[in-house]
Orphan protein (Pseudoalteromonas rubra), 388 residues
Amino acid sequence: MKKLLISPSNMALGEQESQIYQNILKQATEISLNLMAVKVENHPEDFLGWCYELLDVAKNRINFELLDDHQLPIVKKLQDMLISAISFLQLKTLRIAPWPVICEFIRQRETELALDEQLKLVDYLAPLRATPLQDMISEDRLAFSGKHAASLDTGVYQFDVEWFASTKSAKGFHQLLADLPGEFDTALAHIPLEGEVTAQHYQEFVVAYLMAFSHSDEKPTLAPATRLLAMRRPDVFTPLVNSKLDPLCQALGIAKLTNRDFERYWQDVVVAINKMPWFATGSAADELETRLSAIKALLPCFFYYADKDTPQSSNYYKLLNKPKRTTSSGGTKTTRRSKESAETLVDRALSDESIPEHIRAKRDSIIAEVEKGRSVDETISLMRAIFG
């Protein structure tokens, strides 16, 4: 373990890496006796590999039963520092890596990234980009803006809507979006659906976005705005989430953005990423690369730390594997939907050509059940079991 801890001192680290190493080392010193009890056979020669190895020790191989209560937060902080360091080091490669290397990195980590699920979210939202927010059902609006809700039917929304920057903590934003979606439509209308997006387009969006908040006491913040922009133009805008700002800004070599840095976001993030060598590539070798090339500005999201547990953190996964809860009266607890949402979800399902005509004829009955909170798939399956 001692050899592992001191090995970065023999690596050719840059100034940022050296500072990160020193900070990690200070934290590790607080639990040095516990770390020394771990046998280490793998000694990576690069700093990224070193971070992964020490993180594995701190998460899986240290004896937590021997830790004092006051040491548990220290271990958690060490883990967080290593995760942030890994994200920074991986994101930093975006500045120099060519397109094939970017794609191969993502391909090799598709399981940890839950890549198939993330791309399903992108595919679902693609045809909605031209639809005004005020014309969307509430569930689609949540999917577009990045907030999970129990009303999201897993038969329809086969993904966690909070991939690519969750906005669940932006309560004021979501209240305004629910009450005055047209205000945000006015802002998004300044961003063309295709072709070049200019600084002028973005500035006009920002003015309109800020004006949307003039109707309330809530203060406009940057992160939710970047989510809306990224879902409208995933080939231009990279979404931000406050919890991951540190490694991204470090990787871009800029001072950390605040949640009011609308002007700096365009120049320091959007323009910087759009100018990276891999971003300008015009070729795609296979289907995956073709799909990735259409959402280039989202690709930095795949370079944050992810591990085997990441797919299980998905809200979609949790809903699929959630035990059924019951009310005190013994019935199953459900979440009601609006009639508009129920109708839209049912009509989408019934458009499948494999659905028999006599089941389609039960549309009103299916809608009534879905409105009560039953899933679309479950309701149609029940109808088929009853009526054949």
